[in-house]
Specification:
Elements: E1 3-4, E2 9-15, E3 21-28, E4 35-40, E5 51-55, E6 70-87, H1 91-99, E7 106-118, E8 122-128, E9 132-135, H2 145-166, H3 189-196, H4 201-227, H5 234-248, H6 258-283, H7 296-315, H8 327-346, H9 358-388, H10 393-426
Parallel strand pairs: 1-8, 4-6
Antiparallel strand pairs: 2-3, 2-5, 3-4, 5-9, 6-7, 7-8
């Protein structure tokens, strides 16, 4: 997960007047002392050799717990000349235009993009079009086009090494001092399967139940298609196929104990109360005054899916007769599917009560693992897009970084949920 801190910066400066070195300071909202940084590397040509000062006209408070006051590491992409589309409308209007498949009003703007890889906090990104920038008049030294290309390759290598150290590995965390020295290769399909293997009895049961449910639903849908049945007949077919599957497996209907029936009833009453409260709030339209209560990761993944779909559509990068296997379509579909699975997983529990209760942790984990699988599918499709030189190189690079961020945070959530299940197993609950 990257630290994205642009909203929380009050002002700052970065100095590259010494070749191969970027030093700087950031004044953060709510902190008296500035964050200082010493980074190896150089910016792109537009900022190389310069001192750049910047101010955020509307800084916001944020949770910077754990963000080190001293940032030492490697420079990533640093530029103030990246062209981006800046919407000339609110987010609500933007989403309405997207839903109606209409072009939203926009203009080209320069984006300030400042990325580095810190030995204490990993990847950190400032990306904004709203900062006020002040660049000194003359550079202390000048970067050639060839040097800029070499610098971009160095930035890409820094990102790749950082990604390897994240693990898209599920294994042990790297030592901070060794963050940039790894040459660890990307994980194979077999290793990814190992990561999906259950680490507790509860996880194994959840995986088995999920596989059983997928088989049942596939059978139901196949029969609906084969017999040309209407949707109103779905429930009857579901019950028939469920009974057939149980007979094939020699299963019997489970008879709950009186205690289990009582507990289930209490649970149903609790859920009904929650639903009634939500319905009351909805009918009173009180929800209109609330902020987006979705988990930040769901928002990030959903927004990325919308953005990728728009870029691919507007860029006319996919021929009209292309199949679903086209790499760019697979990238969009992978991120979209991951967004849906993340939403399903993270909506199951109160965000203020994370990690989830052991009673639902297995179901949450199943959905998180599926989201991870879809994100990996998107990464593989992105590799294919690189090989075939599809879309725009900057778009591919930017998309890769975004997916890495979401994938890394999904990994963190999987670890946290697995710990809940493992702790319960250690206590003898399973």
């Amino acid at each position: 997960m990257a630290w994205r801190i642009d909203e929380h910066v009050v002002k700052g400066e970065i100095d590259n007047r010494t070749r191969g070195r970027v030093i700087g300071r950031l004044w953060m909202h709510g902190r008296e002392e500035p964050v200082t940084m010493e980074l190896m590397g150089d910016p792109w040509r537009d900022l190389a050799g310069h001192l750049l000062k910047f101010t955020n006209p509307e800084p916001k408070a944020g949770d910077l717990t754990g963000f080190s006051a001293f940032q030492e590491g490697v420079a990533g992409d640093i530029t103030a000349s990246r062209k981006v589309r800046v919407p000339d409308c609110s987010m609500e209007e933007l989403m309405a235009c997207y839903a109606a498949k209409k072009e939203f009003p926009w203009h080209w703007g320069n984006s300030f993009y400042f990325e580095w890889f810190s030995s204490t906090n990993g990847r950190v990104v400032i990306e904004t079009t709203s900062y006020q920038l002040e660049l000194d008049a003359e550079p202390a030294w000048t970067m050639t086009e060839e040097e800029e290309e070499s610098q971009r390759m160095a930035n890409q290598n820094a990102m790749t090494e950082f990604m390897a150290k994240l693990g898209l590995a599920f294994s042990a965390e790297p030592e901070p001092d060794d963050l940039f020295s790894s040459t660890k290769p990307a994980k194979s399909a077999a290793e990814e399967d190992d990561e999906d293997a259950p680490t507790s009895t509860a996880e194994a049961l959840a995986d088995a139940e999920d596989a059983r449910m997928e088989l049942l639903l596939d059978r139901v849908q196949a029969r609906m298609d084969r017999e040309g049945l209407d949707e109103e007949e779905y429930d009857d077919i579901y019950q028939e196929e469920r009974a057939r599957l149980m007979r094939e497996r020699g299963e019997k209907e489970y008879e709950p104990t009186p205690e289990e029936i009582e507990e289930r009833q209490a649970r149903i009453e609790e859920l009904n109360a929650i639903c009634e409260e939500a319905l009351e709030e909805y009918t009173s339209e009180g929800w209109k005054d609330d902020d987006d209560e979705r988990h930040p990761l769901v928002v990030e993944c959903s927004d990325l899916a919308v953005s990728l779909h728009h870029d691919v559509d507007q860029g006319n990068w996919v021929p009209e007769d292309s199949h679903r296997e086209h790499p760019l379509i697979e990238i969009v579909n992978g991120v979209s599917s991951a967004s849906a699975k993340l939403a399903g997983a993270l909506a199951m529990s109160d965000p203020d009560e994370w990690p989830p209760d052991p009673m639902i942790a297995g179901n949450v984990l199943v959905r998180l693992k599926k989201a991870r699988g879809y994100l990996r599918d998107a990464m593989r499709a992105l590799d294919s897009a690189e090989e075939e030189a599809l879309a725009d190189p900057k778009w591919r690079h930017h998309t890769r970084l975004k997916i890495i961020d979401i994938l890394a945070e999904t990994q963190d959530l999987i670890r946290e949920v697995r710990k809940v299940l493992q702790d319960d197993e250690d206590l003898g609950i399973f």
